[in-house]
Specification:
The protein has 356 residues and is an alpha+beta fold. This is Succinylglutamate desuccinylase/aspartoacylase family protein.
């Protein structure tokens, strides 16, 4: 039987109430209680239960900041249903500013977990039983890994009609179709009957203003889509679903000069970066083998041979790539989509390619 979103152990959330409380999920190495801060907000009318989770990887705090913002300044009121907000899932990693759990395991490869397993497996099981099973839908917020940034994109199993519905409603420009890694929160939640999407945006250890704005907008869009909130969705000027992404790697060690930024449309053969020695001599000119959009990139310019540098999302056809390029080129100045491209590149030195 599905657990009630109103009952959380000794805590009861009545219809029309918003409650802040902590959910005990285990013990730390010292034996102290490990508690997840949580907000449960119920409308007066019954309806769907949407969970918003963040920091399954403990250093990915862009989503944490967005959830805090929604708690402090909600841009909506609930017409029906329930909203569950958990700013940090991997609380033990969060307290150490690290991606992983103290036992060095990846929590996002450990769901649905087991009550008799490792520290990580036990936390995964507790979260799955106490949070995931209470939800009808979940939006799970992530960032790129260490020394990388991600242009905002949705990861979703678009073969699942409810997942595709959530993905489109959230309102990122790029949707990557796939079921996700085995043991990830979204894949195991979908398999358990809870449609779940992942948002990938920005960097670790930061709350980036435009990522926060996009996430607030996207969550509001999803709430409207589900009928939990009344209003009109704010969607991007273009949106593509891609089936494939590719990494472009350095062939030689050196120091990079970037010539493209996150969110930029690139063509096959276009120069992405120049790889030089420390004394400025060119090691290699790195070109895109693909038509696509820069979905992610390294922020560490010092690279070894084989290091991944640019993550390219590949449109299904040249026509789709052309439409995407034209739409990006026509973005309104000061729009959220335009501001994202500007701000995500502020810590990357992007320059024009020098003539050889």
């Amino acid at each position: 039987m599905k657990p009630s979103p109103a009952e959380w152990g000794k805590v009861r959330v009545e219809a029309g109430q918003l409650k802040r409380f902590s959910l005990e999920v285990g013990k730390s190495l010292s034996g102290a209680r490990v508690n997840l801060p949580i907000v449960v907000w119920r409308a007066k009318e019954p309806g769907p239960v949407l969970g918003i989770t963040s920091a399954v990887h403990g250093d990915e705090v862009n989503g944490t900041g967005a959830i805090r913002s929604l708690i402090q300044e909600p841009p909506f009121s609930l017409a029906r249903g329930t909203l569950i907000l958990i700013p940090v899932i991997n609380i033990l990693g969060f307290e150490r500013h690290t991606r992983y759990m103290p036992d060095r395991r990846d929590l996002n490869r450990s769901f649905p977990g087991t009550a008799k397993g490792s520290l990580t497996a036990r936390l995964a099981r507790k979260v799955f039983e106490d949070v995931v099973k209470r939800c009808d839908y979940i939006v799970d917020l992530h960032t790129a890994a260490l020394r990388r940034t991600n242009f905002p994109n949705v990861r979703a199993d678009c073969e699942n009609t409810d997942c595709q519905r959530l993905a489109r409603a959230f309102g990122c420009e790029v949707i990557v179709n796939g079921s996700g890694p085995e043991g990830s929160l979204r894949r195991e939640a979908v398999d358990a009957g809870c449609p779940t999407i992942v948002i990938e945006a920005g960097e670790v250890w930061k709350v980036e203003p435009t990522v926060l704005d996009l996430t607030r907008r996207g969550i509001t869009n999803v709430l409207i889509e589900l009928g939990i909130v009344e209003g009109f969705q704010q969607l991007p000027p273009h949106q593509i679903i891609v089936e494939e992404t590719k990494w472009v790697r350095a062939e030689k060690a050196g120091l990079l000069r970037y010539h493209v930024a996150p969110g930029q449309s690139v063509a096959s053969g276009q120069v992405l970066a120049t790889n030089t020695t420390l004394l400025g001599r060119t090691n290699e000119t790195i070109r895109s083998p693909y038509d696509g959009i820069v979905m992610g990139m390294t922020t560490m310019p010092a690279v070894a041979a084989g290091d991944p540098i640019f993550h390219i999302a590949l449109p299904k056809s040249k026509q789709q790539h052309l439409r995407l390029t034209q739409s990006i080129g026509g973005l309104e100045k000061n729009s959220l989509e335009s501001d994202l491209r500007t701000q995500l590149a502020t810590n990357i030195d992007v320059s024009e390619e020098e003539e050889q």
